[in-house]
Amino acid sequence: MSELELEVLRRVGAGETLNTLDLATEKGVEHAVTSGVVRTLAADEMVTMDQKESKCFALTKDGEETLAKGSPEMILLQTLPAEGAPLAEIKKAHKVGMGHCMKKKWIQAQDGMVKPVADPTRVADELADILKRVQAGSFAEDSISADEAKTLKKRNQVTVIKTVSWDMSKGPQWATQRVKKEVALTKEMLDSGSWASTQFKPVNLRSLGVTNSAGYLHPLMQVRTEFRKILIGMGFEEMPTNRWVESSFWNFDALFQPQQHPARDAHDTFFVKEPAEASLANVDPTLVEDVKDMHEHGGGGSIGYRYDWSLDEAKKNILRTHTTAVSSRMLHELAKNKPFQPAKYFSIDRVFRNETVDATHLAEFHQVEGLVADYNLSLGDLIGVIKNFFSAIGIDNVRFKPAYNPYTEPSMEIFGYHPDLKKWTEIGNSGMFRPEMLKPLGLPEGVRVIAWGLALERPTMIKFRVRKIKELFGHKISLEKSRTSQLPLFKEHVNASSEK
Ligand code: PHE
Question: What are the C-alpha distances in Å from 337 to residues 334, 341, 442, 444, 461?
């Protein structure tokens, strides 16, 4: 404990109330020193502290000059020769002093000349006198009268500064020795029983934790995690989607998409230059043969597309344009189970399309895909599964519109009510895979597959109120956004926004 602390404790112990500012003056130390002492002692409740606000004067530059050399009017009176001086000159050199001298009738102006009419040794320099009293009274506000203070302020001699100080008096934990307080209770204290006489530092339960500067999951990934949980909860199994480069065979041909379909040409599909061709060596030759046959001649009541199917076209490597390429692979795998076992699959991953980039389109995005394969499924099952899924993500209102996909029949576009736009917007595409697709994949007759797909970006943009896709995904997104974005539950969010 420092000497000053000890002295403070002794004096407040004896009943004295000490003020930090007075004590600083008394000890000839800075106010910071005594206010430091009061803070430490008060933290331990050895003294109580009471804030006091006092005002005092501080000299301005003009005030300092007056104090050192006298007021401007006195300076003029002292320097003005008895025979006088030209008015214009005095006006210029003693602008302030001249006015006050005239008012006090210390000088007279006549015929362009200024002459002294008072004796500088016999008149009082009022302004300087007030300032001297301020100085003598340690610049305290009450060292002069209110009128005098007004004069000083008006003539820009002083400014008023507020000072905060503290009154200290004896506190509840007063002692002349400091007991070291423990921060935490230890096993040793409990074992020895010393805890009972130990003093503990109070715990500040209101103190805020340290801000975590770590990153957060990207909004798309947050929504993906949530959709994944929902789909797994509905009994869907996740398909492996780690194949961004795909052969045209799985992306198009296996899906009964004719080779001259416009979606295949350079407008929509990114073709891979190196390697430009997939070998298809791992693909079951009967599957390739069956797909070719279905395209060329049809089967099971279908007449096919009746053109010459080209293996070279099917070998072309592309960036997959939809995750339905994954579904076709998985359905072929599923068909290998004998006897057939029903399955529910989903995937959420990236797809690529050579689109014109605008507010809602990027050349790459994420698709959520789901399918159910079983005997005797109907369009009613598809509608039911889709309604369940969308309701699970908070979109209770869905509508369907007939559509066309080469690989589904019937096909339906899915519309959801957008709470912000207040209108029905397309949120997905769906259908029942055609027999022309399922048969070559090896699925037994009577097995139907219902499926749907949607872009992950759409619901994410609605959820996070993102208006431009570039702000959500790609190299232009702000890191700060993904650092600070919250993790609200999807359903809660959509419901809250539709209530507005
Ligand atoms: N593959 C379709 C698309 O890219 C979505 C879809 C999946 C449609 C499954 C029907 C069935 O939009």
Answer: 6, 7, 10, 10, 40
